[in-house]
Amino acid sequence: MRIMTSNIWGDYFGNPVSVREGGLYSIFTRYSPDILGFQEVTASWYKGDALKKLSEEYFFVGTEMFESKNFVPFCYKKSSGLDLIEKGYEYLADTPDISKGITWGVFKSDACAFAVCNTHFWWKEGKEHDRIREKNAKQLCERMQYIRAKYSCPVFAMGDLNCTHLSTVFEVFSENGVQKLFDKAVKKSDVCSHHGDPVKEKDGTYRGCRTQKGAELSIDHILMLGRAKVLQYTVVEDQEALDATDHSPVFADVEL
């Protein structure tokens, strides 16, 4: 099973969706994840073509909640044979940003059961903001533990956590038994997931560059509570991804 997370760069900065969404759509179809989580899904992304095209092959979780401003929906492949048996959304408490929340779902198939949480943590820098992210992490852990206790299945979490591997956020995860898939992967990318803002060209298109930063500075992560074999953990550096967003999509291939 392939799980992918992608911060698609909301159009907060005069960076229109229309000139970037085609590149990300090509990435999503090329790597064809079974589960695909998004962050920064603004109204323009909801109205654009990429999500509409994806809906031909994917069921979406959380998009029906856009009136309550869910910026973190995810989707799962229609051909996967997965049965969604429970789902939910919760705003990240004590976080002064309505775009930060958790969308989650529990799945069953003929072979197994598992759950997914898709999230986006608080973003500012500084110790007082680290405390907010620690609260975000505790809330995520509580949701993951609730699901695992109810369904006795592995629970995956993914998203832009706005912190590196060395953050105190990961101490919270460790205390709650939540592991980084990066650490467990047989094969992994040794590059940072955040490559910086693409530059707008004269013709209105965007051009991004590969980062020279290492994986220790990644801020997009995939996590797990429970057990699974992690075959690979990959940061996508295809040019279409570099041009479309400041965050490279990240995916993990796992065996339950």
Task: Describe this protein's structure.
The chain is of the alpha+beta class. Helices cover 25% and strands 30% of the residues. It contains seven helices and 15 strands. It has helices spanning 21-31, 43-47, 49-54, 127-151, 169-175, 181-184, 239-244, and strands at residues 2-7, 35-39, 58-61, 74-77, 83-91, 101-108, 113-120, 155-160, 179-180, 187-188, 199-200, 206-207, 220-225, 229-235, 250-255.
Write the layout of secondary structure elements.
Blueprint: E1 2-7, H1 21-31, E2 35-39, H2 43-47, H3 49-54, E3 58-61, E4 74-77, E5 83-91, E6 101-108, E7 113-120, H4 127-151, E8 155-160, H5 169-175, E9 179-180, H6 181-184, E10 187-188, E11 199-200, E12 206-207, E13 220-225, E14 229-235, H7 239-244, E15 250-255
Parallel strand pairs: 1-2, 7-8, 10-14
Antiparallel strand pairs: 1-15, 2-4, 3-4, 5-6, 6-7, 8-13, 9-13, 11-12, 14-15
Helix pairs in contact: 4-5
